[in-house]
Each structure stands twice: as C-alpha cells, then as structure tokens.
Amino acid sequence: MVQSPHLGLLFLAVTLVHSSEGHAKVFTRCQLSRELLRYNFPRALIPTWVCLIEHMSSRTTEKITNHNNSYSSYGLFQINNKDWCKKGRKGGNCNMKCEDLLNEDLADDVRCAKRVYDRIGFKAWPSSYSYCKQKNLPDISRC
Known about the structure:
This protein is mainly α. The protein is built from five helices and three strands, in the order αααβββαα. Its EC number is 3.2.1.17.
C-alpha cells in the first residue's frame, strides 16, 4: 500500500495543532477536593465548592454556558464575561481572557474565583448556591 506524503504531513499538522491547545480535564470528586485544598481553599468550605462546581460545570474545565442576556460563563467555576473576564482579550475584574478558563491549568481560574468570592461570596453563583443549600453537601471525608 502506497501512502501519500501529503497524508503524513496532514496527520503531523493535526497532531501539532491538537497538542498545542490547552486540554480540558474532568475531575473526580476527590481529585477536585485535593486541588481545592492545594490552592488553599478553606477546608470547611471544600464541600460547598465541590457542590457548586458539580452543579455549574460537572467538574469539567471546558464548560461554556451561554446565557440569554448575551454573556457567557466559562470553565470549572463558570466565571462570566459580563464582569470578570473578556472574550478574546484580557479584561474584566480578573484581567484575563475567558478562554484561559477552559484548560486544565487551574491557577488563573482559582485566582479569579477567589476574587469573585472575596467580593461577592457564593451569591455570585446564585442558582448553584441555592441548589447546594437545599442538598446534603458531598461527603469528601474519604478523599
């Protein structure tokens, strides 16, 4: 079987483009708990954060939610481009590109989520916080 040299180049190009993009990650509940602790979230609030993140983004970093009021929320923490980030360029109260919230590097996501929490608290995520207040929080004691 003879292969075209163009086919090999196409495969290489696709591979390089794919590997240069940020990769999404879906966390298990325990992985997420450990990451939050690693980034110095207060231990007593970890179950609430895990519940919020499960409800908002299903623990995936690539989640984008388009809202009817012409803005979107991005990433694990569902940070919106109305106030906190800007699509395609740095901006908002976190001075970051929203697209940077969609990869598995959580450092910038955490910085922004903590800024949101410090300014507004869990009220910044009203539907998820309301949901989590009415539920038993996740048991992460075995993590």
